[in-house]
Amino acid sequence: MLNVYLSGEIHTDWREQIIAGAQGLDVTFNSPVTDHAASDDCGVAILGEEPNKYWHDHKGAMVNAIRTRKGIEDADVVVVRFGEKYKQWNAAFDAGFAAALGKSLIILQQPDHDHALKEVDAAALAVTREPREVVEILRYVLTGKLPG
User: Fold this and answer.
1) Which CA distances in Å does 130 have to 79, 111, 125?
2) Does the predicted TM-score (pTM) go above 0.70?
3) How far is CA 25 from the centre of its chain?
4) CB count, 10 Å around CB of 73?
5) Would you say which domain of life the source belongs to (predicted)?
6) Which label site among 44, 66, 68, 105 has the fewest CB atoms less than 10 Å from its CB?
């Protein structure tokens, strides 16, 4: 069985594509909270309001980091998706944390990010362009079978 952590961009359905494609494989998936509002506001919802936006965001980042660290530490494979529209600094941090822990790292990105992510890509065991490629890597790792 593989425990896979799906990190990064939250504005498209790439996670759902991977999970659906991996049906029938012995894989469990975990991820950060992908409800943007809940993720942004978890700190103040739990620990109290903050009038200063910096501290509002800081509280949320700290609470979310508990989930993220646990998910990455428990993972056999970490998939990090860099989307087209937004800069995902948190995704780059997650990739670095996973690499520092020696996790098997798969990056999912478009070619126009190749230069900006060259150091992140160098730490990865695979750089993919489509969720389907991530699924095929998981299938191969678990079964030894090539796409067919």
Assistant:
1) 12, 11, 15
2) yes
3) 19
4) 12
5) Bacteria
6) 66
Q: Three-state SS across the chain?
A: CEEEEEEECCCCCHHHHHHHHCCCCCEEEECCCCCHHHHHHHHHHHHCCCCCHHHHHHHHHHHHHHHHHHHHHHCCEEEEECCCCCCCHHHHHHHHHHHHCCCEEEEECCHHHCCCCHHHHHHCCEEECCHHHHHHHHHHHHHCCCCC
Give the separation between CA 19 and CA 21, rounded to whole angstroms: 5
Identify the pLDDT of residue 22. 98
CA distances in angstroms from 87 to 102, 116, 148, listed in the order given? 24, 11, 35
What is the rounded distance in angstroms from the CA atom of residue 15 to the CA atom of residue 38?
Answer: 18
Q: Rounded to an integer, what distance in angstroms lies between the CA atom of residue 52 and that of residue 2?
A: 41
What is the average per-residue pLDDT within 131-139? 98
Walk me through the domains of the chain, giving residue ranges and CATH numbers: 2-33+73-143 (3.40.50.450)
Specify the pLDDT at position 79. 98
